[in-house]
Amino acid sequence: MAAPLCTRGEVVAAVSATPAEREVRALVGAVLDPEIPVLTLADLGILRDVRADEDGHLVVTLTPTYSGCPAIDPIREDVECVIAAAGYVDIEVQTVLAPAWTTDWISDEAREKLRIYGIAPPDPTQAHAPCLLVQHAPRCPRCDSDDTRQISPFGSTPCQSQHVCNACLEPFDRFKSI
Amino acid sequence: MSDVAEYALRLGDDALVLSHRLAQWSASAPEIEEDIALTNIALDLLGQARRLLTIAGVREGQGRDEDDLAYLRPEREFRNLRIVELDNGDFADTIVRQLLFSTYQLSLYAELTASTDPDLAAVAGKAVKEVAYHRDHAVKWTLRLGDGTQKSHERSQAALERLWPYRHELFETDELTARLIDAGVAADPAVLRSTWDPFVAAVLDQATLTAPEDGARKPTGGRRGQHGEILGPMLAEMQWLHRSAPGVRW
């Protein structure tokens, strides 16, 4: 069955240590997601690793949120641009799938950014289920009511579902737990 | 072609062909939420297909990439199951196919997360979470249509009659799968069927639908490149741009 998912702590523990790696990690981590431009790549937890070898060859490793997420291509281009602008020339951006990305890697700070932006943040996933399909009704990110209903589990991007608030009647999106 | 390449091609072709079928619902679904849902599912499947076809190309070692495999193979070289190539029919046909296929694909990917092939295991680990949503979508609609109005029930039952014979092919084995199961690479169809049968039976029961009696007709041959005539026109639509402007990019 599914291998245990990497926790956020383990991902952060993989942070590499040379000055170039630290600088590039900070630059890439600050790149904004093109679909939800209040979140950075670091907020989303999709920046997996930055490595530099002795010849200065840099490898940045990203992981996609969904297999077919079209945002991964513009993200790769943005990453290459910010690194090139900082004067690095020998760059390689890789994507890896395993361990599979989970919404549990979204930081607490990022969850609050999502809510303020108008997107309800994801619930924690269950440890032994592929994903959480029966989820609590999210709080309305506009009026904070918990009297909301789901319109559809599929939304404007692969990572979001559609909801409406019964109290203030506003529709809103939610980041799906995965 | 190596065994893993051929296996990845089979699974990749299932995802690619069904992705294209579901994308044909864009702007045609019964409501806008379903336009969005079916095309979201199509997008997940397309992402899975890209990864699987990439694996197939790399393992084959002939320098073919995902685009070469998707756009430059003729119909007889496609290895998809027959059920995914069928035309969309009405909404009930599409939903019943989604129920039968996503239930199979969810078990398949869940098993493959433990594959001894790390590339297949990585794709499966990602995809299993996506397909859980696909199956959930299909189950909810099957219940709503099957146990809905008289007309929605009749159409769902008719869809089930049409699609039910195609389920046998999901669980077929051949020499390739036997070798890969022994090596711990592939999922064992007998294991998949032991999950699929009771799950689908429970959904159909709750939806007040009746599984048809098995007849003599058991469509097969997809894994050997033998397809219904319906696949050719779909591939023509999917491939014409790439073939008429080789190497074209957005």
Shape by Cα distribution of chain B: globular
Order of strands across the biggest sheet of chain A?
4-7-6-5
Biggest sheet record of chain B: none
CATH class value of chain B: Mainly Alpha
Distance between the termini of chain A: 17 Å
| SSE pattern of chain A | HHHEEHEHEEEE
The secondary-structure class of chain B comes to: mainly alpha
- According to CATH, the fold-level topology of the largest domain in chain A is GMP Synthetase, Chain A, domain 3
Estimate the strand proportion of chain B.
Answer: under 5%
The CATH H-level homologous superfamily of chain B: Ferritin, core subunit, four-helix bundle
CATH class of the largest domain in chain A: Alpha Beta
Order of helices and strands of chain B: HHHHHHHHHHH
Task: Please state the oligomeric state of the protein chains shown.
Answer: heterodimer
Question: Mean pLDDT of chain A, rounded to whole units?
Answer: 85
Question: Separation of termini of chain B?
Answer: 31 Å
Helix content of chain A: 25-40%
Q: What is the gyration radius of chain A calculated from CA atoms?
A: 18 Å
- Proportion of beta-strand residues of chain A: 15-25%
Question: Number of DSSP strands of chain B?
Answer: 0
Overall domain count of chain B: 1
